[in-house]
Automatic annotation (TrEMBL):
It comes from Odynerus spinipes. This is Reverse transcriptase Ty1/copia-type domain-containing protein. SUPFAM superfamilies: DNA/RNA polymerases. Residues 2-182 form the Reverse transcriptase Ty1/copia-type domain. InterPro entries: DNA/RNA_pol_sf (IPR043502), RVT_2 (IPR013103). GO terms for biological process: DNA biosynthetic process.
Length: 263
């Protein structure tokens, strides 16, 4: 969608739906215990153990909450006249060519793209009749990805995401490095265990954050390890247990992110 918007010089606006899952409608009858910390008007009911609540909305945490919300949004979108793509049900469109209106949905984040600002505003006004929304206007940041717009070009980067995670892992002031692995280092899937059960080194959290970067903007992270044991291009993705040798390698991956975050 972003590539199409850049090619046709489309505007991209962003909308966030407030408490999205609470807009979903339930088909089933679901009963729940009365919340213990509910307001005083229900004190009498709380003291009566045989009373329960009837759930009228798809609360967060219910198995059907996500599906119920998507179905409700799908119904409201179709009322406006946009059609879901056969390639991706989370992408909607109206019209064709340079006059097309594109709508991209990711849970409660909605991106709307068109050359015609009137079409974008019309769709946003339609959403306002059904949901409480935050109109963020021109897209700046979505899902940790920042957007810089110029003439028929859109740059995607995650500088703020990297800076926040460097701070989270206590590496904000670390010394940057320009290579992802020290010369001559070879890691294996299994070697001597640290014996610490990963408590002092958030290995999976650190690698998961790096994988999100790799999937979106930091392609330099997707390189092939020299070790034959690794089947994937994602660094350390197949390691079964953390070993002593993996700790400096894991931290080094964040040092290179500090080196490249401004690029």
């Amino acid at each position: 969608m972003v590539a199409i918007a850049a090619q046709y010089d489309m505007r991209i606006h962003q909308v966030d739906v407030t408490s999205a899952y609470l807009n979903g409608k339930l088909d089933e009858e679901i009963l729940m215990e009365i919340p213990r910390h509910i307001e005083k008007p229900l004190d009498i009911l709380i003291k009566t153990s045989d009373k329960v609540c009837l759930m009228r909305k798809a609360l967060y945490g219910r198995k059907q909450a996500g599906r119920s919300w998507h179905r409700r949004l799908d119904d409201e979108s179709k009322k406006f006249g946009v059609i879901p793509s056969s390639a991706d049900p989370c992408v909607y469109y109206q019209g064709r060519g340079e006059e097309i209106l594109l709508v991209l949905v990711y849970v409660d984040d909605i991106l709307i793209a068109s050359r015609d600002l009137g079409k974008i505003n019309s769709f946003k006004n339609h959403l306002k009749t059904a949901f409480e929304i935050k109109d963020l206007n021109n897209i700046k940041c979505c899902l940790g990805i920042e957007f810089n717009r110029s003439d028929r070009a859109i740059q995607l980067h995650q500088q703020r995401y990297i800076e926040d995670l460097l701070d989270h892992f206590g590496m904000k002031d670390c010394k940057p490095v320009s290579t992802p692995l020290e010369l001559g280092v070879k890691l294996q899937k299994e070697c001597e265990d640290t014996g610490e059960d990963n408590k002092e080194f958030p290995f999976r959290e650190l690698m998961g954050s790096l994988m999100y970067l790799a999937a979106n903007s930091s392609l330099e992270f997707l390189f092939k390890w020299e070790a034959d044991e690794f089947e994937d291009n994602i660094i350390l993705s197949r390691i079964k247990k953390l070993a002593i040798a993996h700790v400096p390698a894991g931290w080094r991956e964040w040092k290179i992110q500090r080196y490249t975050k401004d690029e």
